[in-house]
Amino acid sequence: MIPSHPMDLSGKLVLLTGASAGIGRETAILLSKLGARVILSGRNEEALAQTLASMSGNGHILAPFDMADTDGIADWVVSLNKAHGPADGYVHCAGVQLNRSIRLFDAAFFDETMRINLASALAVAKGFRQRRNRERQGAIVLVSSIAGLIGQSANVVYGASKAGLMSATRGLAMELLRDNIRVNCVAPALVNTEMAQKTKDSMTEAQFQYILDQHPMGIGEPVDVANAIAFLLSDAARWINAVTLPVEGGYLAN
Ligand SMILES: NC(=O)c1ccc[n+]([C@@H]2O[C@H](COP(=O)([O-])OP(=O)(O)OC[C@H]3O[C@@H](n4cnc5c(N)ncnc54)[C@H](OP(=O)(O)O)[C@@H]3O)[C@@H](O)[C@H]2O)c1
Predict the structure, then answer these.
(1) Mutation test of ligand 1: which of 193, 197, 208, 225 has the most ligand atoms closer than 8 Å to its C-beta?
(2) Counting atoms of ligand 1 from 1, which one is nearest the CA of 144?
(3) Which of 96, 107, 66 is nearest to 199 (CA)?
């Protein structure tokens, strides 16, 4: 049945990582306005509480967790399912970006980036598919980046982790068909968050201006990405599966 508002999320429970800041926080606020109950995750409990204070509706749940604990993640998700009922949606916003030249590459840097950005998404998916009511369509939205589609100096490992998310989107979408779960991905260009501020701080003014000049419509706001996430999560996208949606104000056409 098509709801009166195509992006209505009433009655749905959504697990959201990265809910303590930036794109994740804005996504939490929007999902709550659309009627969803949201399980908010991140490490910073105070920041999660701040997100909660900005949300609409009731019944949201704070569930702090460190995405570095790869092998603990699936059990944690299953315990959330047991306590609150199986989630209908999962949005993976948690991520880290360290700009580092390949000259400074080492295993610890590689492991941290891949673990937080990519391995955690797969581990949450492992837990999310368990104990589901397959009569209800589930939806996963992974937050990648245009860095996974283009080449950027000093951003090689981050770009590889985000390209991995796009590949994982296609693989998971096929594997989770039997669980009645769609899996899609968004790939934003530069968005006005703390992460973007850190990128700015790591560069000269001229270098950052060069990046700004590549955005024909200027840089995005977190709500621009949240809108795309909410759409892919909603039943309005019930026949959209395994895609990566660039959310980038024309960046890739430039
Ligand atoms: N901003 C951009 O320009 C941009 C562009 C393209 C893609 N993206 C992607 O969009 C997503 C959100 O980015 P943002 O700009 O909103 O970043 P942000 O403001 O830096 O927020 C990052 C989020 O990730 C969480 N996180 C980081 N490490 C974690 C860990 N070990 N365990 C659990 N949570 C962790 C943080 O929570 P805690 O600190 O509370 O743990 C925070 O909620 C990221 O995946 C990023 O790669 C951002």
Answers:
(1) 193
(2) 7
(3) 96
Q: Atom 8 of ligand 1 has which residue's CA nearest to it?
A: 145
Q: What is the pLDDT of residues 67-77, one digit of tens each?
A: 999 999 999 99
Which residues are within 8 A (CB) of 156 and not within 5 positions of it... i.e. 6 or more apart? 102, 105
pLDDT at 18 exceeding the cut of 90: yes
What's the pLDDT at 237?
98
CATH number at 146 reads 3.40.50.720
**Cα separation of 203 and 110, whole Å?**
21
Tell me, yes or no, whether 209 lies in a domain: no
The predicted pLDDT at position 59 comes to 98
Task: Count structural domains, the chain.
Answer: 1
Q: Is 201's pLDDT higher than 60?
A: yes
- Residue 135 Cα, ligand 1 centroid: separation in angstroms? 32
Contact status, residue 7 vs residue 230, Cβ threshold 8 Å = yes
The most distant pair of C-alpha atoms in the chain lies apart, rounded to whole Å, by 55
Does ligand 1 lie within 6 Å of residue 94's CB atom? yes
156 SS3 class:
helix
pLDDT band at 4 (very low <50, low <70, confident <90, very high): confident
Distance between Cα 93 and ligand 1 center (Å): 6
What confidence tens digit (pLDDT) does each residue in 135-185 have?
999 999 999 999 999 999 999 999 999 999 999 999 999 999 999 999 999
Q: What atom in ligand 1 is closest to the CA of residue 199?
A: 3
CB distance 195 to ligand 1 below 6 Å: yes
> 28 is in which domain, residue-wise?
13-190+224-240
